Predict the 3D structure of the following.
Amino acid sequence: MIANDNNPRGRTRDYTWSLEFLVHYLMAPGCRVVLDERQFEVLKAYLAHIDAIGEHTNFQLEMCVDYRDSTTSAGYSVAWDNDGDPFEDDLIGTIMEQMVQSLGFTGGSIISEGYMIDLADIDQQIAEIRKRVAARHNM
C-alpha cells in the first residue's frame, strides 16, 4: 500500500504481541494477528464475547491476517480451534463466522467485501447470535 493510497482503512501491522499481552490464554501457539488498527479493535471486541462464554470452551485463535499489504498474496486468513460442548462450539463457530464477515476483508468467501462492523453494533449482533444458536439447541 502506498502512502497516499485512497483506501479509507489504514496499513496493516502485526498485533500478535499486543494480543498475547491482552489475552494470551485465547491464543494458540504460533498465532499470528496482522490487521489494521480498526480491525484489531473489532477483533478484540469479538474475542471479549468469546471469553465471556466461559473458561471451559478451550477456544484458541490460530490466525487472523489481512493480506492486503502483502506483495505476494491477497485476501485474508482466519483460523481457530474450540473444544467446548456442542452448544459452545456452535456459538463460537457462529460468532467467528460473523466476525470474518465483519472485519472488512476481501475474498471470495466474503458476502459483502470490505464491510466492517461498527464497534457499537457488535453487542447487539452477539445477542442475536446467542438467540439463534440457543434456538437451534432448544435452550
User: Anything to note?
Assistant: The chain has four helices and four strands.
